[in-house]
Amino acid sequence: MALDSAVQDLLDGLQQQGLKSFEQLSTEESRAVVDSFKGLQLPTREVAEVIDETFDGPAGKQQVRIYIPEASHPLPVVFYIHGGGFIAGSIDVAEEPNRALANDAGVIVVATSYRLAPESKFPAATDDTFAALKWTAENISRFGGDPTRLAVMGDSAGGNLAAVAALRSRDENGPQISAQVLVYPAIDANAETASKREFQEGYVITSAGMDHFWESYLSSPEDADHPHATPSNASSLTGLPPALVLTNEYEVLRDEGEDYAAQLSAAGVDTTHQRFDGLVHGVYWMSGAVPRSHELHDAVVAFLRDKLKVQE
Question: Region Disordered: which residues (predicted)?
Answer without folding.
Answer: 219-240
